[in-house]
Amino acid sequence: MPEFTSRRGLLFGAAAVSTGAFLTACTSNEPSDKSEDKPSEAPVADDKPGKQVTIGFAGPQADHGWLNAINDNARSRAKKYSDVTLDITEGSNDAAAQIGQIDSLINKKVDVLVILPADGKAMTQAGLKAMRAGIPVINLDRIFSSPQAYRCWIGGDNYGMGLNAGHYIGEKLKDKKDAKVVELAGLDNLELTQQRTKGFDDALKNYPNIKKVARQAAEFTVESGQAKMAGLLQAQKNFDALWNHDDDQGVGALQAIQQAGRDDFLMVGGAGAASAFEHIEKDDGVLKATVLYPPTMAASAIDLARALGQAKGIGGMAEFEIPSSVTLYSAVVDKTNVAQYKPTGFK
Q1: What are the φ and ψ backbone dihedral angles of 346, each rounded to 5 degrees?
Q2: What is the distance of C-alpha 196 from the center of its chain?
Q3: Residue 35 pLDDT > 50, yes or no?
Q4: What is the mean pLDDT of residues 37-63?
């Protein structure tokens, strides 16, 4: 059987094979051997060298601290395994250019593709093309518009990020009458920004004493964070808490806060930058916590791709296959647990 046919069969025919095997087992009247009654143990990917796997990695341009950490996590994780070869592209924020890079990886016949698309909807066809070529895709973070374009999706929980930020602030202010909060969001044309805001707003519904009095969208950069925060501070002379969606733009926001001489509120950040962890650990300013959107998801994507390439499951689960989706938890990091999370901070 040609390689293309067999690999494509593994991707699209697994359900039919499993169903057939299940029906055979259920309808057979033949007595089974006692040894066959014992449940089979799934082969699990571990640190021991196994089948060689070439993983193609295509992500957007690392023009942001979090995206740079994505690439670093993928590279460092791949180096951990002697049976993994990582073929990583230069990265581009232009969908057409990234599609070309993915085409190149498909033509190289890599075993598995890990793709963090610059635009999930615009690049869905690239994922479909790889899957149809018999190359399974791990879709990282920004999701394709069709589940047929990937074998497994892994990413952060944007709604949960806002939800946890809102609950953290809510618990801190639950006993304060007529508490006021403001929000420094990210790019409003991104769905992830809207999800973070919705989670935050939903959490605040549990605290009738708290009102969100202002919201300003920035652009995930230090410069935009500083400019937009300065505007918020000028417009809002009195508030009790700030939630900032992104720790990179939070660097600028903190500069604006310092320049304004304000220290009369608490601030919660987002993503998990090393600089935010340092402020939280020192506990000498307004930044008291940050809600994670962990770039370690790229390392986990390499683990999933390796397991997929070796036809194995993952540790701690009984299934023979990796799951179809993995949503990471948005943990809140404050001074009580910052030491645990510091090694994951990105610069």
Answers
A1: -105, 155
A2: 13
A3: no
A4: 86
User: In this predicted structure, what is the pLDDT of residue 36?
Assistant: 52
Reading the block at residue 236, the tokens are 């809002």
b vs e for 178-212, b when ≥16 Cβ sit within 10 Å of the residue's Cβ? ebbbbbbbbbeebebbbbbbebbeebbeebeebeb
**Which domains does the chain carry?**
3-8+41-156+296-316 (3.40.50.2300), 158-293+332-344 (3.40.50.2300)
pTM: 0.84
* Contact (Cβ atoms closer than 8 angstroms) between residue 115 and residue 138: yes
Is the backbone of residue 244 left (phi > 0), alpha (psi -120 to 50) or beta?
beta
pLDDT tens-digit readout, 285-334: 999 999 999 999 999 999 999 999 999 999 999 999 999 999 999 999 99
Q: Collapse the DSSP code of 215 into the 3-class scheme (helix H, G, I; strand E, B; otherwise coil) and give the result.
A: strand
Write the CA distances from 76 to 43, 73, 86, 215, integer angstroms. Answer: 24, 5, 10, 38
* Residue 114 CB burial class (10 angstroms; 0-12, 13-18, ≥19): buried
Question: Which tokens in the block code for residue 59?
Answer: 């992500």
- Residue 97 banded pLDDT, cuts 50, 70, 90: very high
Angle formed by the axes of helices 297-309 and 65-79, nearest 10°? 40
pLDDT confidence of residue 28: 38
Residues 6+ apart with CB under 8 A from 234: none
Average pLDDT of the residues of the chain: 89
Report the distance separating Cα 215 and Cα 212, nearest Å. 8
264-268, long-range: CB within 8 Å, 24+ apart, which pairs? Answer: 264/238, 265/239, 265/240, 265/241, 266/169, 266/172, 266/240, 266/241, 266/242, 267/241, 267/242, 267/243, 268/165, 268/168, 268/169, 268/241, 268/242, 268/243, 268/244, 268/332
> Are 304 and 284 a contacting pair, CB within 8 Å?
no
Average pLDDT, integer, range 147-162 = 98
